[in-house]
Structure formats: C-alpha cells, structure tokens
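Field: COMPLEX_INPUT
Field: COMPONENT_COUNT = two
Field: RESIDUE_TOTAL = 311
Field: MODE = joint
Values follow.
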Amino acid sequence: MSTGPPVGLAIVGATATGKTGLAVAVARRLNGEIIGVDSRQAYRGMEVGTAAPDAAELEAVPHHGIGFLDAVQPYSAGDFARRAGGWIREITGKGRVPILAGGTGFFLHALTHPVFAEPPMDPSRRAELRGWLGSLAVEKARGWSERLDPVWSGKLAVLDRQRAERAIEVALLSGRPLSWWQERAEPAVEPVSLMAFGMALPPAIHRARIRGRIERQFETGWPAEVEALRAAGVPADAPAMNAVGYREVAAFLDGDTGREQVIEAIASQSWGYARRQRTWFRHQVPDLRWLDATEPIEHLAELVEREWRRR
RNA sequence: GGCGCCGUGGCCGAGUGGUUAGGCAGGGGCCUGCAAAGCCCCGUACUCCGGUUCGAAUCCGGACGGCGCCU
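Field: COMPLEX_OUTPUT
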C-alpha cells in the first residue's frame, strides 16, 4: 500500500467480519498495539452499539483511538490522520508494531494518501455559514459550488449536497477554492505505508453474523446505552449519533417500534453499510490481501504474522 | 359438479388496446476533512394456449392454478 517499506499492519473489512478479534490475536503475536480506524468506536459511551473492543481485549492489548471522544465532538479524516500519525510514532518508538484496525476506509486513506493541511477557518463564521447552507435547496448549493469552484464541482459525476457545501465553505472561509488547496497545499501528514489485510465473508454468512451481533447487542445493553446518552443530554444530531442503529434503538425506547422490527431495520442498515465498505476497500485500497474470515482467528493471525515477518 | 372473482418482474402493487408506473428487497458504483455519512446507476414483467386487431398485459374463448359461494 503506498510506497516504501510498511511501518505497520492494517486489518480492514466490512462490519462484523471479525477485524477486532484478528487484530488482537495478531497484536499478541507481534508485540503490537492497536489503532482503531473507526469513526464511531472513537466515541465514549457507545461501546455496545458500535461493537467496540471489550474490556478483555482492551486489557490484552493497548488500544489507541477507541472511546476517547465525547459524542458531541466532531471527528474527521484529517483529525484521524494527524492523531494516527502520532500514535504510530509512539508505538514504533517503543519498538512495537502498529496495527491499524477498523472499517472506516476513508480514514485509513487519509493516512496512506494524506488529505491536504486545511487552513484555519473561523468556527463561528463556519457555523453561521452552515446554517445558511442548510436552508438552501440542493440545486442552489450546487450552483454556488459551481461558481466558487468549477474545477472541483466538475470532478464528480453528481455533486451531492454534502460536497457542494464543503466546496462553498472552503472557498468562502479560506479565500481559495477547495481544488486549489487540494492541488497546492501541503499534505496534513507524511504518507504512511502499511501492509493491508481485508476480512471477507460470503454474503449468507456475513448476513447471519450481522444479525446475530445485533441480537447480542440488544441483550448486552444497547437500549440502556442509548438511554444513558440521552440522559447525558447528547442531542440527536450530535456527530456520533448518526451511527447505524442509534436512531432505531431510540425509536424502540420510545415504544414506536417492536424489538423484532427494530432489529430487522438495523440489520438492513448494517448490510447497506457493509456493502459500501466492501466497494470502498475493493477499489480504494491497492494491494489489499484478502483473508477468508470464516477461518479460525488463530490461523489467520498466524498467516498475517508470517507475511509481516517476511516483509 | 355448477356459479362467481382473481392470476403483473424475488415480494408488494398501479395500469386496462399502442408511452419505462411506483415501492421494497437485491446488485453495481462514486468518494481529498459530516465517511456507520452523503450520493449515483441497474429489472421491459404481465400463468399458458388459441383467437380478434395494423397492434393485447389490457378484448374474446379455452386450459391450468388460487379464492369464495352453491348443490
């Protein structure tokens, strides 16, 4: 992946393919530490719903990037890349092996193919701008984006709202179009080279695992977790709250939908997410070595260990 | 056995002589800081066999299947 000898391992794949377990097993063999590449497990108080590493796993191997943010704090690809860069240096400095594990492909990408160093943008102006943009019709936003940054706006087959707004924001707040920054600005971090493995599962088995996991999550306190987040005053539109299932569990708590129905809905959401992940890894991570995730974890860990040592 | 109603793509469901309904499910894809997010694309189906017609999923007849009622 990227140029140069790999400084660490990456274990990626769609949800519920067993990344966490494999990462821990590999870390034990290689004297490694794990860096969570997960935009939602990064939040505190969402352990159950995001299927974050459990206490035993956290104790067995040092983890970074897991459960360290409040639900209201934003977490972006750039944030991740900067932090991960630091964690990697720290781990490597101890003579240990960094193992990047998780399903947020874009975050990993921001590390191997760094995003540009973003100029500072006034937060209050930004908030104000966002408010205004939110009230715009998509076509309007698209129009502004095209005017402020025709280069960027012409790149995508279809300019969606999120990206149009981003282009407008950067152009207005930084004084330069997004495409300018992308082309000329310094990268946010030094590119990192990793040896990447992907966990793959046949569809039927994968679906069954997803389904089973959701049921387990319900049994191990997902509803209570959502209850606690609400009690803590976390608003429904907090950055962390659009994680798969949280809205559904909230509806369940309110008595709007039955348990079976909610589980069904979450399974369907998760499957859609898993598909997007698969597509991403398939196309965005070159030299990804696919692993048959139906194999026993220790067997896979041994395989990864061998590959790593041979590097 | 008789009478009536119905038979649309994986499912649901409009249409009723000549344009791709639509929804769900499923699949493929995009992605330079909201990424567990956001977004794009993909199915010519009408139970079967005859007939009427320039033309039928749509009309007529029959077969088969389902449902209901009757004897």
